[in-house]
Predict the 3D structure of the following.
Amino acid sequence: MVEKTLGDVATYINGRAFKPQEWETSGRPIIRIQNLTNSTQECNRTTKQFEEKYRISDGDLLFAWSASLGAHIWHGEDGWLNQHIFKVIPNESIDKIYLYYYLLYVVDQLYAKTHGSGMVHITLKPFKSTRIMLPELNEQRRVGGKIESLFAKLDETKEKAQAVVDSFETRKAAILHKAFTGELTAKWREEHGVRMESWEKKSVGELCISLKYGTAKKSDASGNVVVLRMGNLQQGEIDWSDLAYSNDPDDIEKYKLFPGDVLFNRTNSAALVGKTAIYRGEHPAIYAGYLIKLDYDHDKIIGDYLNYALNTLDAKKYCNSVKTDGVNQSNINAKKIGAYSFNVPSIPEQEKIVSVIQKLLSKEQQTKEAAEAVLDQIELMKKSILARAFRGELGTNDPSKESAVELLKRVL
């Protein structure tokens, strides 16, 4: 193992300062930092020719030394390198992949050497003075290969975890669809001698005694009773953060909420108008004017069933079709939401449906949260692997040491 500096092991060529007037829509791409950090970022192009040293090709090692420091392997067509990025040309003493991962490993050290308050940057002298420990070349290749293999497994895990998170709403919609078409309680009906024909299509207006708009008075930053606003309706439940309050005794009496009350958001952005939530009595509360309290008949429907019914894809499609769009907001009045109809079984079957939905959605939520926890840990895992790699702890040169595969299993 030999101690060197980054300046000893590679040549660093800074990109060219391209001018906006040189940018075109055709020709070779001009690679800027945002093209390295965001694969979907469209490249500016140019048909002009420049010095060969600014040209980059697929597989070239690059290092962004300004704004968002980091090492990158360029994958794409030949292009021209913009300023604030080094083209890294390793010499014969170091393997390119080993150097790439080492640059990722020391990026926090390099940030500590940056200058500037807005767009930070590291100059060439402190960059090149950064130390690097070099094993012999074959060991470098083994280390780089092990890291690559572990990172590939982590990236595969990340992709799968992200797919779980991204598909949560789809899975939730599928559960609600099965609930309101009778599929979830088919066995329950068979056991209780209930026929599907017992279900009736009812409108919100038929199921509710009244549809009441909330208070129009301005709320306070503190007070005795919470005023629920449209931002407090999230995913069918009340979000008790970012609260406003009321001290008005008349409003508190007139708009008082009771456990089980269902609120409908009548005014919001086009994407959010029509969302609902059920109040469960956690804190004394009233509701603001952009909300409608669906004062339902408890002999006909239970609150959770009504709340879930208004969160189905069918309900969302209906709201989208009847909303009135303004400049910045959309609106659905009480008459329009009162006209929405859906399938309603008996109260006992409603209770069973709600119970099954809650169990299934709870499992889906746990699955989503577990996937999100994995996503939160991926980059930490990569840092851990890099740290072990450059301490010689990946088991690449000693069969008695923990193998890379075993490390990944343990870290995951």
